[in-house]
Amino acid sequence: MASNVQETTRDKILRTGAEVIHLKGFNHTGLQEILSVAKVPKGSFYNYFRSKEDFGLQVIDYFIGQFFHFSKDILEDTSIPPLERIRKMLDGFKDLFRSTEYTCGCPIGNLAQEMGDLSPAFRERLEDAMNAMVDAYAGILTEAQAVGEISTNLDAKETAHFIVSSWHGALIRMKIVKGLEPLDIHSKFIFDHVLRPCI
Amino acid sequence: MASNVQETTRDKILRTGAEVIHLKGFNHTGLQEILSVAKVPKGSFYNYFRSKEDFGLQVIDYFIGQFFHFSKDILEDTSIPPLERIRKMLDGFKDLFRSTEYTCGCPIGNLAQEMGDLSPAFRERLEDAMNAMVDAYAGILTEAQAVGEISTNLDAKETAHFIVSSWHGALIRMKIVKGLEPLDIHSKFIFDHVLRPCI
Q1: To pair with A4 at 20 to 30 A between CA atoms, which of A107, A164, B106, B115?
Q2: Which of B105, B118, B170 has its CB closest to that of A24?
Q3: What CA–CA distance (Å, rounded) separates B198 from B148?
Q4: Are A89 and A75 in contact (CB under 8 A)?
Q5: For residues A8 and A3, what is the distance between their CA atoms, to the nearest angstrom?
Q6: pLDDT in tens, A146-175
């Protein structure tokens, strides 16, 4: 039982701390604020995390876990044609952002922007997280090529990188205009210009 | 002469403070650090800026001024075909990022990501700054349509938004992989798939 209780406390600190970091960024979120939202004393925090940086690295793992929790069912639903799966996943994220008033964006993209130049440890972990997302898209794009939905002239991995990066950029503008227009423009160009049977 | 001295001090605070903010972000840069790099006392800072937020808003204006200072000659050189001007501008930024070891990225994109949810004043100023960049691209794209370099089926403004947003996303990944590959992928997809005579 003890280990279950410990697991729950750790998860609670991660979940509540991750929410604040998602909105405010890592450096702008103080340890005291993390303890306050998690409602745990400092000693409890250090039972699970060696430092604020160690916490941040585990938050990245938490965020990538959330990404796959959110998208796994769609990504793996082979009853839906590959491109339609990508569209459904992006539409799902649009619904999510509509429900949160166009705030926060992608936590992996945010942390990459904020921490890419400031912490080699964050950089390494964020590259792994980005690659996991890219691999998920690349797998579907390879399926899409196999069934003729998109051109085999496309490099699936490069195309996946472009989809993810341009999505991250669209999310930046979403936070400024507080609307879905940047994400709709992203979908339009990705589906009308890139993911085509002939290029 | 007095006004010249004042102008110089203000510009020095802006330039040196902007450099720190470009690397570390706005919230992670303390007023004391801004004063320290500018080598001015606090009283001098408040001669020019009402608050740290007011300083941040003027830093946005400084950054967009830098963008046009960097790109104006290329943007307005009508001896070069429109698409070639866009390519030269992006190549110029790639050279710049190579020289700075792939750090910092676009300061407008960075601040939009960091401050978009945290400050309505920043959001408004950043939207103006993004629109200024987008209008510059849209103008060239309209020229490119007039000479048949790209399809008139493209909406120049939307296309410009997609180019700028996807560039911002590519810069995020540049900061993680510390190389030009994300920017080269951006160029490849923008020029091979979007900016074409027939779509």
Answers
A1: A107
A2: B118
A3: 9
A4: yes
A5: 9
A6: 999 999 999 999 999 999 999 999 999 999
Q: What is the DSSP string of A35-59?
A: HHHHT--HHHHHHH-SSHHHHHHHH
User: Residue A19, exposed/middle/buried by CB under 10 A (0-12, 13-18, 19+)?
Assistant: middle
B12-23, pLDDT tens digit by residue? Answer: 999 999 999 999
User: Which of B109, B78, B112, B90 has the alpha carbon at shortest distance from B190?
Assistant: B90
Here the ipTM equals 0.95
User: What's the one-letter identity of residue B104?
Assistant: C
Structural class in CATH, domain B57-194? mainly alpha
DSSP secondary structure code for residue A195 in this structure? S
Residue A48: exposure state from Cβ atoms within 10 A (0-12, 13-18, ≥19): middle
Any idea which residue has 């942390």 for tokens? Answer: A111
- C-beta separation of B13 from B39 below 8 A: no
Question: Any idea where the domains of chain B sit in the sequence?
Answer: 1-49, 57-194
B175 and A112 within 8 Å at the Cβ level: the answer is: yes
Question: How many Cβ atoms sit within 10 Å of the Cβ of residue B78?
Answer: 10
* SS3 letters across B91-111: HHHHHHHHHCCCCCCCHHHHH
Which DSSP symbol is given to A193?
I
The CATH number for A1-49, chosen from 1.10.10, 1.10.3470, 3.30.1050, 1.20.120, is: 1.10.10
HSE value, Cβ hemisphere, 13 Å, CA-based, for A197? 3
Q: Which residues of A touch B192 (CB under 8 A)?
A: 199
- pTM listed for this prediction: 0.96
Residue type for position A171: L
Given an 8 Å threshold on Cβ–Cβ distance, is A165 in contact with B172? yes
